[in-house]
## 1
Amino acid sequence: MAKDEKAKAKKEQVKGKTKETVGRAVGNETMKAKGQAEKAKGDVRQAKEKAKDAFKR
C-alpha cells in the first residue's frame, strides 16, 4: 500500500510540475495555478508517507 501511495504522490508531483511549466510557457495563469496546486498535493502526500515510514522504525 505504501508503495502505491508513494507512486501516486510522485505522479501528482510530476503532473503538477508539467502543468505549471506549460502554463508558464503559454502564459496561462489558470493552468499554472492548477499545476502548482497539484504539485503541492503530491508534496503533502509524499510528506505523509515519509512520516508514516519514520514511525514504522
## 2
Amino acid sequence: MCACLLGACGVVPHVGGTDRQTVTVWLMKDSASQDFLRRFTKSFESKHSDLRLDIRIQQWTGIGEKVQAALDADGGGPDVIEVGNTQVPQYVEDDRLFDLTLESALRWGSEDWLPGLAEPGQLLSHQYGIPWYAANRVVVYRKDLFARAGIKTPPRTREEWLTDTEKLNAGGNQGIYLAGQDWYTLSGFIWDEGGDLASDADGGWRGTLDTPAALRGMDFYRRLQSLGDGPAGSDEEHPPQAGVFAKGHVAQIVAVPGLARTIVQQNPDLEGKLGFFPVPGKTAAKPGAVFTGGSDLVIPNNTDEHDGAVAVVAALTGAKWDTQLARTMNYVPNKKSLAKSLAKAVAGEEGAAAMAAGAAQGRATPSTAQWGAVEEDNPIKPYMTKVLEGADPATEARRASRRITEDLNRLD
C-alpha cells in the first residue's frame, strides 16, 4: 500500500477475534465521538462475525487529494470513505465510486432522505453518495433584546422577520448582523423563490442568478441585510460573526447552532440569553430553504471488500445509529422522518430542534464536479457586494451568471 493511504491521525481498535475480513473505513476528524465509534464497532462486529472494522480518522485539510489517490490506486485502500456532501460529484468521475442505486431504493428508504444530502450524491439518477448526517443554519437570537422590543414569539414568515428585525434595529443595536457576501444564506432565499444558482435544464450547465426568481431572492437579502451594519464587501468569516455577536449589540445572526457556544465563551454574560428559530419561509406553513452541509458515505469501486463495505454503510446510515450520531453530535439525521422525530425528542434543546425543523427544506449546491471551480474565485460574492452598494441587480446578475457558466463548462 502506498504511503499516502497509510496515514491517519487516529485508529479506532476493532473488537473481537482475528479470523475476520477487514473493512477499512475513513471517517473525518470530529464527525463522530470516540465513544460513539467504539459502541458502533462493538455492535457491528457482534452482528458480523466474519468482519472486523479498521476505522481510521482523517483530517479535513488535504483530504481531497488523499481521497483522489485512494480512488485511483490498485486496491488496498479504504473500503468506505466519508466525504463532504457537495464533494461527491468530483469523485464520481471516471467510474471510481460504486453505484448504490438499488440498495438505496430497495433497502435504505432513499425517498425519505434529506434532499440536501441525497441530491449531491447522485449523477444521472444514480446514487453514489449515501447520506449520513446534516447540519444547517438557523437564526441565533438574543431573547432579552426580543423581549425588550415587545416581540413575544420568533417570526415564522419572511415579512414578519423583516418587521421584527426593523424593531430590533434601534437603541444602538443591530437588528441583524448579515455580512454582504454570505452566499450560503442568499442561496436559501433564491431556492425559496423557485430559483437556483445554476441549472442544466437546457442540456448544459449555466449560471442562473439573472432569472426573475433568483433576483427576488437577492432583493430579500438586500432588504434584510440593510437592517444591520454587516460589511457589504466581506463574508461571515471576515470578521468572524461569532465575535461580532459576542460584543453584545447584535440581535440576530444566521449560523449553525453550535456557534452559540463560541459566542458564550467570548462573552459569558450572554449565557442563557440566546435562542434559536428556523430561518423563516415565505409562509408560515414551512421554514425557509437552507444550505445543507454534512457528509455522505461512498464506496470506492476498487474495494476488495464490497459486501462488507455495503454492510458498514447500511449500519452507519440506518435509523438506529444515524439517530444516535445526531443526538451525540448535535447533527440532523439523514431522513426527513428521523429529523422530525428528533425535533420532538429534543424539543427542550432549542438549537437542535430549530435545525431539525429546517432540515427538511435543505438544499445543496449544483450537483456537478465543476462546482468547485465556481467556488475557487466565487463570482457570487462580488455580485452581492455590488448590489448592496447600489449597482443594478439585473446587470450584475447577468455578469455573475456568465462567470458561473464559464466555470461550469471549463475544460481542465
## 3
Amino acid sequence: MSAIPTCVFTSSDAPRAEHGHDPDRFVQIGSLTKPLTGTLLVRLAETGVLHLDDPLDTHLPAPAGTGITLRHLALHTSGLPRLPPGLRRFDPYASLDAQRLDALVRRVDSLVTGPPDGTEEYSNLGYAVLGAALASAAGAPYAELLHQYVLAPLDITEVASNPPQDQRLYARGLFGRPRRPWTMDGAILPAGGLWATPRATARLVTALLVERRLGEPAPSWQTSGPLLWHNGATGDASVFAGAMADGRWVLVHRLSGDAEGTDQLGIERLRHASPGPSRTG
C-alpha cells in the first residue's frame, strides 16, 4: 500500500509535507468549512444583519412554527437529520442545488427527527440550510459573505469554493491517476464544500482559536475539555484541526477519506506539541 500524502502544521514544529502533499495547493477541507460558516453567522449577528435566535422562517420559506433558530442550526440541535434525503452513492452532493434545498426547506417540518434544542445530532443538512439563511439575510452569496466578513479581516485569500484546476491537489488512484473529488460547490458548500491550502487553513486555525482575532470562537467548534476542534472528510480527503487553552494547536490534512486515521494523527501531534508562535510559514 502506498504512503498517504500528509501535511502537518503544529505550534512547535516547522510545517511538514510528506509523500507528495503540498502546503500551498488547494485541497478539500470538508466539514472544517462549518466553523467558518459559524464564524460568519456570529459576524453577521455582531453587525446587526441578523440575530442568532432568529427563527428559520424569518430568512427562508420554511413553515412557521417549527421553533428552529439559526443558533439551533449552528449547534446541531435543530432536529434535522445528518444528511439530506435522496443522496447518490457516488458524488453524493452533486444534485443538491439551490432549488432542491429550497424544496427541502419548504417541508422542513416533515424532515426533523425531534424538537429543536433537544438532543444534538450532527447535521450536514442543517449547515446547508444555515448557509442559505445567511445568504438570504445578508442579500449576497455565501462565498462573497465569507470573504467579506471572515477571510478579508484575517488577510487570508487561499480559501475558495472553486479554485483553479491547476492549483488543486488530488488524491491518486490506480496507475497514479487523479481521483475525481466530490462536487460540493452547490447548496452543500456551507456545510463542507470549501477548498483551501493547508497553509491558509493553519492560519485560520491560529487566527480563530489561538489569537482570537475575530473574538470568541464560533459555536460551531466542537469542545472536549480544554480542546476546541473540528474535523472534516470528503471521499478522498480528510482534515483535523484543534487548539488547546494553553496555546498548543495542530492542523493535519491527508489525501485520504479515512477521517479516523487523520483524527488520531492530529491528536497525537497535538499531544506532543508545545505552545509557540503561529508557525505557518
